[in-house]
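Deliverable D4.2, example record:
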Amino acid sequence: MSKVNRRAVIKSAVALGAVAMLPRAKAQSGPVRVGYSMSRTGPWTGGAQTSQEPNYLMWAEQQNALGGLSVKGVRRPIELISFDDRSDIETVIRTYEKLMGSDKVDLVLPPWGSGANFAVAPLANRYGYPFLAPTALSSRLVELKLPYFFLLLQQPAPMVTAMIEMFKANGVKTIACIYVDDLFGLENFSALRAALQGSGITMIEDKSYPGGVKDLSPVLRSIKDKNPDAFVGFTYPPDTILASRQSKEIGFNPKFFYASVGTAFPLYKNVMTPAGAEGVMGMGSWNSKTSAGAKAYFDAHVASQKKEPDRWASGAAWAGLEIITAAVAKEGLDRKLIRDYVAGNTHKTILGDIRFNGSENVGTPGTVGQWQNGEFEVVWPQRLATAKLNPSKPAW
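Output generated by the structure prediction step:
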């Protein structure tokens, strides 16, 4: 496993967005060494290279263009020390053990996905490194009560509750669900069953499937025969696209079609075509209409990374970097003080105010997004909506 040192240098003044207006601080000193592992090969690559690593690279670009990260008023260049974890849990664990235990980097950034974060969360706590995870959904991580670990995404219960509230408000009586047989799928399915209690909505079919599945058409045909009002898939990006394509092929077109990871990716509308994506719903929390900061971030991401961010975890990744930047500016590189700053304050971010109760972000609510006219709009809850919900998905 070879080390990849990345001293990010800004390529365009446009990529700075609003950050370019910040005043420069005092003269530079030695680099701030920031370590992480990321999936550049293997099945996690699509998510990692959409939602997470582009944000790490852009953050380093922006900060280094200002003279470096402000460490209590002293600008120090960021040196990213990163490894390809090959979408392998054991490699993730060994990498962070090395970064925190022997390399003793100044800061660490999290890996991609619920499973990888669950594996390294105890390590982060043992070594005393604050982790702000933008792609982990796990109530079990909250229950571990690890003081150095923070989850930026809304967790299964609030996300699923928002979905069920939306369904109930729009006359849904029956749903069918598929879910990947791992931590992400199992926890979200459990949250769904809990949210359905007393809702008046009946789950008429549910099926789990293994990671790496190549054909979902048999279960989709079975669900189509039962004609549910809504379909829910707790799916990863390849499965999200597979379920969508095969639903189109068999003519399964319920009023509400909800998938999970990957639905908010630009890739989804490109693969399905904007017309094919129209009306599809999924987990999502923001777009460029969410705030002035979100618009600046979106434009900077396109200029720097030559591609759009996704409308869910990309925003959470950037919000986490905003929080870390503010913490280091105030507290320096004392990791205990950074942890206390993160835990004890309400943080202004592109997603709105974020605050933590233990490990859980309790500042931003669960949300539902929907593709409309080529944009993934926030449609629920209504107070955060960037567009009005379309309550009947058009034909594929």
